[in-house]
Design a protein that fits this description.
With about 550 residues, the chain is an alpha/beta fold. The chain is built from 17 helices and 15 strands. The model has no long low-confidence stretch (mean pLDDT about 85). This is DNA repair protein RecN.
Length: about 550
């Protein structure tokens, strides 16, 4: 629960520190004194949007901090622990707004994001404003409130999330199906190309090998002649072949006398040359023996090369690019054929997602039906006590033609204010007073089931007076018994029900205006109740009435 709040330089508040207790705390004061300033400041601590206008004139920044006792709220403890923000049994929220409009947020002294502040704040405080009934006229707000009452918020979120998953799969499936006709034509073309390239079955390096072999086979006759000619020059020619001439040279040189080292070297080199010439001639003879013309093989090679060149021209690529083209065509074909398979897989996923969605939505519908009847009954009981004894309150679950992000039904609050009148949507109720009472009845019922420790009612009793106001006060006091309730009010009947009473007043000093808050006890509280009853001039009659009202509350 909220244990204290400290406000500095916020709006017309210069400095304010307050401590709070359990039960119902009422806040009253003259119009314009700033009764709702504490609520506004608390809202900022809970993550509401702000701007520079909230900073007190002439000051650099506004600073607001709120301290909560969370020892009985393990879910808040868990949230803080998960983010390393735990601090004993307390949670301190702080907001600092500069005069330039910049804002900083803190949880237990550590900087945090505004979304974190809002998330933890939503678990600590629930604020009901005086215009709450305006939002309750919207069907979305009614649906959310019913789900909150029935503890169905998490299930409702799951339905919404599953709906988003299903819709995305459905859109993907539709897009895939629209592309399928184009894909069929593409697959047919690629299949033909892949088949043609597979039949060609070109191997790595094959073109170079074929071209080399073609060149070799085409030149066999010329190669044979030149090998014969070369071997003749070396050894076979009768007219002075190399070997014969070397023999003559060796014989002549060997007869030179005296022999010298240089001569011996020359003889040795000529002998080596002779041996090499003979070996070269033997190699040429062997080469000649291996040369054999093969016109059939040459035709096969030329046909193979022709097929390769023709295929390359057909596909508008170089012959060397045919291997890469085959890989590319086969890869694209596999991808498209795989997409056909994925189309079936996608269809199966879409069906499974829809089944899961309908199962969740069906469960949500079943639980909503139970929750709506219970909520409607309790709200009807409350509004009977608020001066509408014959009113009938319903919650309509109108089935939709198909499932939506919110489930299988459209939720709408229905009211029949008088006997014999047909029920009609709450948004069509013309009377502002009736709307205020119905809204208050709904808020009181939902507050009883809320797990949030601190509830704030900011002038929700607008449009209510007399005996009904006393009923409202009792309602709020009963809600306060389970935790903590704050109520900003202008009604004495409501204010008298408070366990704690704060009065807000406006002080003008040195041409500066500021709000002050004081805790009222005994005579001061009696005077404030009397002021609410009869205006600024207090009479003994209004004071006596005020004492009577407070006394009656003590006897309850």
């Amino acid at each position: 629960m909220l244990t204290s709040i400290a406000i500095s330089n916020f709006a017309i508040v210069e400095s304010l520190e307050l401590e709070f207790k359990k039960g119902m705390t009422v806040i009253s004061g003259e119009t314009g004194a700033g009764k709702s300033i504490m609520v506004d400041a608390l809202s900022l601590c809970l993550g509401d949007r702000t701007d520079a206008a909230v900073v007190r004139h002439g000051q650099k920044r506004a600073d607001i901090s709120a301290s909560f006792d969370i020892q009985h709220y393990p879910h808040v403890h868990k949230w803080l622990e998960e983010r390393d923000l735990e601090h004993d049994q307390h949670c301190i929220l702080r907001r600092v707004i500069s005069k330039e409009g910049r804002s900083k947020a803190y949880i237990n002294g550590r900087p945090c994001t505004l979304s974190d502040l809002k998330e933890v704040g939503s678990q600590l405080v629930d604020i009901h404003g005086q215009h709450e009934h305006q939002s309750l006229l919207k069907k979305n707000a009614q649906r959310q409130q019913l789900d909150e009452y029935g503890r169905l918020t998490d299930l409702s979120k799951k339905v919404s999330q599953q709906y988003a998953i299903w819709r995305q799969l459905k859109e993907e499936l539709s897009a895939q199906q629209n592309r399928s006709s184009e894909q069929d034509a593409k697959i047919q073309l690629l299949s033909y190309q892949a088949q043609e390239l597979q039949q060609l079955d070109l191997k790595e390096g094959e073109i170079e090998e074929l071209e080399n072999e073609q060149a070799f086979l085409s030149n066999i006759a010329d190669s044979q002649f030149k090998a014969y000619q070369a071997s003749g020059i070396l050894i076979d020619s009768d007219e002075g072949n190399v070997c014969s001439l070397l023999h003559q040279a060796i014989n002549s040189a060997s007869q030179i006398r005296p022999s010298t080292k240089e001569l011996e070297n020359a003889l040795e080199m000529m002998n080596v040359a002779l041996i090499q010439a003979q070996e070269a001639a033997d190699s040429l003879h062997h080469y000649q023996d291996t040369l054999e013309q093969n016109p059939e093989r040459l035709m096969d090679i030329e046909q193979r090369l022709s097929d390769i060149y023709d295929t390359a021209r057909k596909h508008r690529t170089l012959p060397e690019g045919l291997l890469a083209l085959r890989e590319s065509v086969e890869a694209e074909l596999d991808s498209l054929q795989g997409s056909e398979e994925s189309l079936e897989s996608l269809k199966e996923k879409e069906e499974q997602a829809y089944e899961k969605l309908t199962a969740l939505a069906t469960t949500l519908t079943e639980k909503r039906i139970i929750a709506k009847d219970e909520l409607a009954k309790k709200v009807e009981e409350q509004i009977h006590g608020l001066g509408m004894p014959h009113a009938r309150f319903f919650i309509q679950c109108q089935p939709l033609n198909q499932v939506s992000a919110n489930g299988f039904e459209d939720i709408e609050y229905m009211i029949a204010s008088n006997p014999g009148q047909p029920a009609q949507p709450l948004r069509k109720v013309a009377s502002g007073g009736e709307l205020s009472r119905i809204s208050l009845g709904i808020q009181v019922v939902t507050a009883h089931t809320s797990i949030i420790p601190t509830l704030v009612f900011d002038e929700v009793d607008v449009g209510i007076s007399g005996g009904i106001a006393e009923v409202v006060g009792r309602m709020l006091r009963s809600v306060g018994k389970r935790g903590q309730v704050f109520c900003v009010t202008h009604l004495a009947q409501v204010a008298a029900q408070g366990n704690q009473h704060l009065r807000v007043s406006k002080l003008v000093e040195d041409e500066a205006t500021s709000s002050q808050v004081e805790l009222l006890k005994d005579q001061n509280r009696t005077q404030e109740i009397a002021r609410l009853l009869g205006g600024l001039e207090l009479t003994e009659q209004t004071l006596a009435h005020a004492r009577e009202m407070l006394g009656n509350v003590q006897l309850q």
